[in-house]
Design a protein that fits this description.
Elements: E1 2-5, E2 11-15, E3 18-20, H1 35-54, E4 138-140, E5 158-160, E6 178-180, E7 198-199, H2 201-209, H3 215-221
Parallel strand pairs: 4-5, 5-6, 6-7
Antiparallel strand pairs: 1-2, 2-3
Length: about 220
Amino acid sequence: MSLSRGSCGIPRVTCHSRSFHQPFSRSSSRGRPTKCEAKFFQEAQKHALALASTAVVVLAPAAAAYADIRLPPISSDPNRCSRVLDGNTIGQANAVSDVLLDVRQCNLKNSKLVNVTLSGIVMDSDTVLDGSNMEQAVLTKAYAVGASMKKVNLSNAVLDRANLDGVDLSGSTLYNAVITGTSFEGTNLTNVIFEDAVIGREDAKRLCRNPTLKDESRDQVGCAD
């Protein structure tokens, strides 16, 4: 057995002629891990903990970034509402994109937006996304103030420096979502599922201050009370 590093620094354990990079459902004929496979899991866990320790960042309140924001006039593009189905692809981290996604006054109820990049998307109180599937969507610097997003599937989605103030997220699912630097002032979080979500420390504080975050949802966010 030997230990080395695979791609992206992921531990690689070589057992005789085999190399393991991933966990597996059953490790031996008896359903119990071999010594070598147990070593792999041990090293993989150490690697995951090391990554987690570097990910704890204290973020300034996201609302401050939107204090003086001035939105451009609503786009005159007749196809602007449907463009959201394709998303945009350039500059995801900073929301500098090839197309401005302006969905103000758009009814996009029950839309399929799976694995779509929506960096810098602009919504308003007349935007309706109720019942939409936005699994794995990327909403970097999304401006969604007042939008209706009831019962939306945001599982595995990325909410990065987004403004969700006043959004109705009631009944939505954010299972395993990544939430960093996002504002939830006045957001309706009734019955929202945050199970296994990765939530920034300051984001968790803001969520816990929201009076609509109750019962199991509060436990999932990690609220102290």
